[in-house]
């Protein structure tokens, strides 16, 4: 959207600090292909766009409410102190406010605002991530993986049939971007690589399903979603916040200057989880970066 194009009335209204019960400074807006994100003092409000991309459908108010609640529920598993709840946006007499008077016209996920300079992505670029930090993060993720739900229904989302269907759907939806975002040769290379990867790993996919390895985990874990702060002595916190629940947690370590960090992460995760780190995951990491246009 260019500066000449106006935002929808609701979005324009939410750029006014008076729309919020506790705002004293200008509101910042970040726009993605699926959400409007409003930064309001120490809080963040995420409003889902009424869009349908096949892999997600936010076209009705009820669907947006449902997926706001799901987002809070899923992300509270890792950062309950960050995800505060779902708030109603109401309208009366043409004025939109957060949980003010009037009828409910939209929903927003409310979060605590985290300092951007404490994101792992930022700290890695400054070479300010220590081995102790990696150990704390890997231990947290390993514990989360160990305790995450599993069962026949969850397995159905990660078995060979589901993986193949999702990959093919990605490519069906990205064909229209050939020539603008990626070349035909690049597209064909990604399709061929993806299909070959799935074909060569059929046994692994089936074995993981049979062994109950498919779990209800975090769907978009990158270093930009991990925030490091000083551990709290008072509440026994490890000082880690993980936000925004499709790629592996190793994808953020892809820069050439970070291979030692990646290897230390893999070693620590293995030691904590008590399982061998999947070798195919490491080989898969460059592919995750190449297919960045295909993930949400």
Number of strands: 8
Dominant shape? globular
Query: Ranges with pLDDT <50 over ≥5 residues?
Result: 232-236, 245-257, 284-296
Q: Please, what is the average pLDDT? A: 81
Rg over CA atoms = 21 Å
Number of domains: 2
DSSP strand content:
15-25%
- The helix count comes to 10
**Arrangement of strands in the largest sheet:** 1-2-3-6-4-5
Order of helices and strands: HEEEHEEEHHHHHHEEHH
Largest sheet: 6 strands, antiparallel
Please describe what this structure looks like:
With 296 residues, this protein is of the alpha+beta class. The protein folds into two domains: 9-113, no CATH class; 118-294. 39% of the residues lie in helices and 16% in strands. The chain has ten helices and eight strands. It has helices at residues 9-14, 61-75, 120-125, 131-147, 152-155, 160-174, 184-200, 202-210, 259-273, 279-290; strands at residues 28-31, 35-40, 43-48, 83-92, 95-98, 103-112, 226-228, 240-242. The strands form two sheets. It has a six-stranded antiparallel β-sheet with strand order 1-2-3-6-4-5. The protein has a two-stranded antiparallel ribbon with strand order 7-8. Helix 4 crosses helix 9 and helix 6 (160-174) runs antiparallel to helix 7 (184-200). Mean pLDDT is 81; it is low at 232-236, 245-257 and 284-296.
């Amino acid at each position: 959207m260019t500066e000449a194009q106006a935002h929808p009335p609701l979005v324009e209204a939410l750029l006014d600090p008076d729309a919020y019960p506790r705002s004293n400074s200008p509101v910042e807006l970040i726009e993605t292909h699926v959400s409007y994100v409003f930064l309001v003092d120490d809080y963040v409000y995420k409003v889902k766009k009424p869009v349908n991309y096949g892999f997600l459908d936010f076209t009705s108010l009820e669907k947006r409410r449902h997926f706001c609640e799901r987002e809070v529920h899923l992300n509270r598993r890792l950062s309950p102190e960050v995800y505060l709840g779902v708030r109603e946006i109401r309208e009366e007499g043409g004025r939109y406010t957060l949980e003010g008077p009037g009828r409910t016209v939209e929903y927003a996920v409310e979060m605590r605002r985290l300092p951007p300079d404490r994101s792992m992505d930022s700290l890695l670029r400054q070479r300010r991530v220590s081995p102790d930090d990696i150990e704390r993060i890997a231990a947290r993720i390993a514990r989360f993986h160990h305790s995450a739900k599993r069962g026949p229904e969850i397995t159905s989302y990660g078995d060979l049939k589901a993986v193949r269907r999702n990959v093919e759907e990605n490519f069906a939806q990205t064909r229209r971007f050939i020539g603008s975002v990626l070349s035909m040769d690049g597209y064909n290379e990604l399709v061929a690589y993806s299909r070959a990867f799935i074909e060569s790993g059929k046994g692994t996919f089936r074995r993981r399903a049979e062994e109950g390895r498919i779990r209800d985990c975090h769907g978009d874990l990158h270093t930009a979603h991990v925030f490091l702060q000083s551990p709290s002595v008072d509440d026994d916190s490890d000082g880690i916040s993980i936000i925004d629940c499709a790629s592996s947690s190793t994808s953020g370590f892809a820069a050439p200057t970070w291979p030692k960090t990646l290897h230390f992460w893999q070693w620590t995760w293995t030691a904590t989880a008590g399982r061998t780190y999947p070798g195919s995951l490491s080989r898969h990491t460059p592919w995750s970066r190449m297919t960045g246009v295909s993930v949400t």
